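User: Just a sanity check before I run the rest of the batch. Below are the structure tokens for the first item. I only need the designed sequence back.
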């Protein structure tokens, strides 16, 4: 470590503590450098996920700056409480030259200093975040998951997950869950607090996702949580009730899936609204029926449709079944609603609003759409590569 304190040709000092007044220049005993820096000056092909570590062998550190060539912002790092060491918090950028400057004081109060200049390796393969849901600036419901998708499979999931920082205006406990090698989802233990803000800061630059594969960019995405819009659909009583911030604001008679077969049975469980369209075309193709002569065939243009699963379930306007709404279930699995109510619900709907359906013998699969709330908290957090939940900070 003493040899790493100086950087030949880097323009810094030798890393030795300044000679005290009156100290003889010849015959003095050699002492280790007051400040040691790793990586050593002149190092090349340094792994970007290796931390920069600065250590005060004697005395304490006062200031450490790590900066990439061509940038003005310093690299984020942490100084130990005893001021004896400092280390970078996140990985470095691949294929980049860095300069480290450190200043401190020795045990007698004299000034100490050291510099180091090194270059990180250029990886043979890279990865990046290809998509983040919600969109930047989007206003979403309190059940909204935070979904991060990568452009290639992640083998070192714990290393990548550790770089995904979630901040929120009010602290919540949540956990990441790997849905696949290319996708990880964050969900709070309970719904997001209404009327707040959430930010994802992905420090994926330089992190090693697999042997030889490093991140070349990070991501910052901020979105807002809207009102707590939570709806219940009671299939047996044929009624839908909407609550906003805990207050029941509107309800209507509805008609759900008629049953008789699995495809016609509305799924019970905690659904999230995933999107909406006005109009959308619904066909029987989703269940393999394309022949117009088949009595099961249908093709309808539907207005004010709000999607609540990936298996074709919507809350939508159904003027053709008004007489059945509030009385019996006649749909192919959707929640048929009166036109006026459906229009109102559609207008205020946000992605991530909660729709809890009860009263059927078909449970919503947690992998169906955004059915993530179907998993108990213990199973959800077990899907974290780090094996533990985290608490967001503002």
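Assistant: Here's the designed sequence for the first item:
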């Amino acid at each position: 470590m003493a040899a790493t304190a100086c950087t030949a040709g880097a323009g810094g000092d030798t890393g030795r503590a300044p000679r005290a007044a009156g100290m003889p220049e010849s015959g003095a005993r050699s002492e280790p450098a007051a400040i040691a820096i790793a990586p050593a000056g002149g190092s090349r092909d340094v792994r970007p996920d290796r931390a920069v570590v600065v250590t005060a062998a004697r005395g304490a550190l006062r200031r450490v700056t790590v900066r990439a060539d061509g940038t003005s912002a310093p690299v984020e790092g942490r100084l130990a409480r005893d001021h004896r060491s400092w280390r970078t918090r996140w990985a470095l950028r691949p294929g980049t030259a860095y300069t480290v400057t450190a200043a401190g004081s020795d045990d007698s109060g004299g000034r100490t200093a050291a510099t180091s200049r090194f270059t990180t390796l250029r990886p043979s393969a890279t990865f990046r975040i290809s998509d983040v849901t919600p969109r930047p600036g989007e206003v979403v419901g309190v059940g909204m998951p935070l979904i991060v998708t990568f452009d290639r499979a992640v083998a070192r999931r714990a290393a990548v997950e550790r770089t995904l920082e979630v901040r929120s205006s009010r602290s919540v406990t949540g956990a990441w869950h790997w849905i696949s090698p290319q996708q990880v989802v964050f969900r709070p233990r309970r719904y997001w607090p209404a009327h707040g803000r959430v930010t994802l800061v992905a420090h994926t630059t330089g992190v090693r996702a697999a042997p030889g594969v490093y991140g070349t960019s990070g991501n910052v995405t901020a979105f807002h949580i809207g009102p707590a819009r939570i709806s219940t659909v009671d299939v047996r009583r044929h009624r839908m009730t909407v609550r906003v911030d805990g207050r029941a604001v509107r309800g209507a008679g509805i008609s759900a899936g008629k049953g008789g077969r699995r495809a016609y049975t509305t799924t019970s469980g905690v659904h999230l609204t995933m999107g909406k369209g006005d109009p959308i075309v619904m066909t029987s193709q989703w269940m393999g029926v394309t022949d117009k002569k088949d009595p099961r065939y249908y093709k309808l243009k539907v207005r004010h449709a709000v999607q609540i699963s990936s298996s074709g379930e919507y809350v939508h306007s159904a003027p053709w079944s008004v007489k059945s709404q509030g009385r019996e279930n006649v749909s192919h699995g959707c929640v048929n609603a009166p036109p006026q109510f459906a229009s109102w619900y559609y207008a205020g709907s946000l992605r991530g609003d909660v729709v809890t359906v009860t009263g059927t013998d078909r449970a919503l699969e947690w992998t169906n759409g955004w059915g993530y709330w179907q998993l108990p908290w213990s199973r959800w957090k077990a899907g974290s590569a780090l094996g533990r939940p985290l608490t967001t900070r503002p």
